[in-house]
């Protein structure tokens, strides 16, 4: 398989060619090592599909800045670290990225606050963490002996782990300070615990971040499977009513997790890959989706969003000056469509090649053609243009469609007019 990708970044023309498993890189037409090729500052994969083909990032060390190995690549989907699919995994991945952004600069936090505002929520998240059974045993082990008890417990857990499912990686025990850090995290969070768990509040409108350390510690304990995120609540801006994020509608959940996940991961010169974002969305939200993306992330410069979709409604909301629509299933390769900004019915016909009797775009073409016939204007170029569009639609319609007979009659009308004119 041969693949070629070309893009422009920092004023340079960049290209990557894959031919028979050999990769070549070019910068302004010159061959260069692939590592020297300018690349996006962040690549974010977003999906609400259970069957996405995105790579899963491999978890790194317990005390790494992120639970995802690459600082470049972020996965925001429904699969957990072991590839199992659940709605909770999608929520928690987005929130994990969000909480990791708490330690960033004030400007980034305020941008995230803007996303909350756009979604109709106050810019704060309340999280209930619960100690797992292993976590409670960990606390009991350290209650009397401190770090000695913590170490003994973790060593015993290491012994019962398997190669396929280790409790903690070898890297953890190779770091002499790791157990002390984990014990200190447990001690700190236990101080505000009710015995079963603890609540933390992330306020993205605050100029100073007071819970930064405790959120990092909670993430460390979660990665060690000593603590787990049990409940996440948002407050509606209009009423102040607290909403458990899992009780929100599937559409609200899809938009919130996607937008907030992107907000915490995006940077200038980012590449955002989105697979079937229309899943679970009301048609009105689909039509407005691309506008939401453009307005929400307008402060970030030189970012590109690549969406794979089967939704004509979503495509109809594309801004013609900001987007291109490509059909990658064409046998001759990708082709540019001039459909952005058109109605969903027109997009169905012109972009997806689908037409039914109830299609309003086709009906409007038929009405216009019949009106031109009634006005005896069949020799005008406009009649020819409309008829050509209808004849392209003809093969898309069901054999039983009465529209096909009308289109055929219109074709004969033009033939008769041409004959009379000759």
Automatic annotation (TrEMBL):
InterPro entries: ATPase_AAA_core, Bact_Antivir_Def_Nuclease, P-loop_NTPase. One of its GO terms (molecular function) is ATP hydrolysis activity. Residues 223-316 form the ATPase AAA-type core domain. It holds the Pfam family AAA_21. This is ATPase AAA-type core domain-containing protein. It comes from Microbacterium proteolyticum.
């Amino acid at each position: 398989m041969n693949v070629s990708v070309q893009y422009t970044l920092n004023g340079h023309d960049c290209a990557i060619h894959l031919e028979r498993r050999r990769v070549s890189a070019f910068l302004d037409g010159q061959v260069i090592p692939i590592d020297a090729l300018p690349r996006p500052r962040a690549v974010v994969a977003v999906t609400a599909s259970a069957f996405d083909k995105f790579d899963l990032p491999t978890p790194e060390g317990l005390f790494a800045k992120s639970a995802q190995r690459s600082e470049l690549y972020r996965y925001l989907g429904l699969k957990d670290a072991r590839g199992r699919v659940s709605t909770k995994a999608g929520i928690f991945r987005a929130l994990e990225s969000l909480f990791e952004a708490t330690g960033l600069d004030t400007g980034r936090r305020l941008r995230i606050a803007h996303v909350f505002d756009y979604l109709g929520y106050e810019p704060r998240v309340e999280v209930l963490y619960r100690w797992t059974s292993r976590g409670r045993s960990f606390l009991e082990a350290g209650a009397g002996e401190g770090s000695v008890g913590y170490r003994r417990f973790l060593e015993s857990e290491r012994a019962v782990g398997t190669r396929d499912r280790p409790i903690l990686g070898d890297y953890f025990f190779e770091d002499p300070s790791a157990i002390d850090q984990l014990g200190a995290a447990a001690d700190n969070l236990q101080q505000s615990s009710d015995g079963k768990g603890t609540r933390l509040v992330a306020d993205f409108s605050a100029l100073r971040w007071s819970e930064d350390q405790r959120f990092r510690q909670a993430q460390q304990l979660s990665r060690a499977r000593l603590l787990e995120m049990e409940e996440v609540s948002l407050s509606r801006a209009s009423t102040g009513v607290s909403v458990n994020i899992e009780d929100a509608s599937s559409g609200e959940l899809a938009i919130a997790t996607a937008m907030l996940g992107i907000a915490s991961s995006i940077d200038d010169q980012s590449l955002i890959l989105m697979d079937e974002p229309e899943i679970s969305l009301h048609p009105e939200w689909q039509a407005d989706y691309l506008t939401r993306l453009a307005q929400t992330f307008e402060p970030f410069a030189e970012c590109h969003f690549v969406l794979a979709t089967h939704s004509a409604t979503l495509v109809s909301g594309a801004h013609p000056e900001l987007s291109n629509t490509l059909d990658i299933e064409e046998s001759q390769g990708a082709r540019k469509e001039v459909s952005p900004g058109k109605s969903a019915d027109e997009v169905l016909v012109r972009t997806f090649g689908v037409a039914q009797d109830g299609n309003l775009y086709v009906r409007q073409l038929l009405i216009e053609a019949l009106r031109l016939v009634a006005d005896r204007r069949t020799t005008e170029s406009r009649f020819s243009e409309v008829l050509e569009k209808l004849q392209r639609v003809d093969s898309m319609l069901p054999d039983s469609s009465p529209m096909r007979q009308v289109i055929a009659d219109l074709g004969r009308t033009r033939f008769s007019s041409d004959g009379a004119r000759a």
